[in-house]
Every structure is written in structure tokens, then in C-alpha cells.
Amino acid sequence: MGMHVTDQSSSITSATLAQKLIARAAGRSHVSVGEVLTCQVDLAMFHDSSGPRRLKPMLADIGAQIWDRNKVVLVLDHYVPAQDADSKKIIQITRDVAKEWQLPHVIDSEGICHVVLPERGHLKPGYFCVGGDSHSPTGGALAPTCLA
Fold first, then answer.
1. Topology at the third CATH level for domain 41-147
2. What's the CA gap between 62 and 77, in Å, rounded?
3. Which of 61, 105, 128, 147 is deepest in the core (most CB within 10 A)?
4. How confident is the model at residue 81 (pLDDT cuts 50, 70, 90)?
5. What is the mean pLDDT of residues 57-77?
6. Segment 98-122, tens digit of pLDDT
7. What's the N-to-C CA distance of the chain in angstroms?
């Protein structure tokens, strides 16, 4: 009967770029597939569709607020220009909340969220990013880890 030996040192030190970035965000030396982690977010993006009209009541319900306005980018792109009364209302809610929360990074009607983030320099290599858009992971092409 033969003996099977694995090189455990290489399996411990090898990791994908995503694993390395997630480990850094979690304050860990390494992470494994399937772990549930709490991470420090470098950038959070939300837009007029997924944003203030849904997020504001959720934060109010739990007595929370945006943790760091400088790490948040709000993009108005899904409902602009307004095509009907509902769109107009959503845009107004979004703009009102941006003012109320004093968000310094608001991109209003200037492009698609997952495109304008890198164009404006908000995505940087090594960042751990979250976004309220199903296309947010496309930012990973620039070497951050972007999750939707």
C-alpha cells in the first residue's frame, strides 16, 4: 500500500487575490472558502434604485447611520432622467437624503454606477468594496474585491 503525502505548506500559503483581500479586510492572515466573516469596508456604493428610499428606513429601524460618509458613494443612474412621476419621486428622495446625510460623494446623472466609480478614482487596488448593484463585481477587474 502506497503512502500519499501532500505539501501542506503550499496549501497554507497559496491563496487567490480575492482571499488575500478579504483576509486583509477581515483582519486575518488567511481565510477559507465557506467562512462567514466581518470585514472593514473600504468603499460602499449605492444608487437611486437600491439606495435611500430603502436604506434610510432600514437604518432608522435599527437605530443606525452611515458609518463613514467619506467611504460611501451615491450614484443617481437608474431613474435619471425621470420618465414618470414615480421616477421623479425616487430621484427627489435620493437627492434629499444625500443632502440630509451630507454625503460628499454624490454622482448625479453622470453615468452608470459601476462605470463612474473607477472613472472617478473611487475604486483602488486592494480595496474591499460593496455595492447595491448586481454589476458591482465588475469593479474587481481593477484589483479590488467588489461584492454585490
1. Aconitase; domain 3 (3.30.499)
2. 28
3. 128
4. very high
5. 95
6. 999 999 999 999 999 988 998 999 9
7. 49
Q: Report d(CA 130, CA 39) in Å as an integer.
A: 11
Where do the structural domains in the chain lie, given as residue ranges? 41-147
> Which pLDDT score, from 0 to 100, does residue 142 have?
73
* Nearest-angstrom CA–CA distance, 30 and 24: 8
Contacts of 106 by beta carbon, 8 Å cutoff, 6+ apart: 73, 74, 75, 76, 98
> What CA–CA distance (Å, rounded) separates 143 from 54?
29
Please tell me the predicted confidence (pLDDT) of residue 61. Answer: 96
The structure's pTM equals 0.82
Q: Report the 3 state secondary structure along the chain.
A: CCCCCCCHHHHHHCCCHHHHHHHHHHCCCCCCCCCCCCCCCCEEEEECCCCHHHHHHHHHHHCCCCCCHHHEEEEECCCCCCCCHHHHHHHHHHHHHHHHCCCCCEEECCCCHHHHHHHCCCCCCCCEEEECCCCHHHHHHHCCEEEC
Closest listed residue to residue 73, CA positions, set 25, 41, 38 = 41
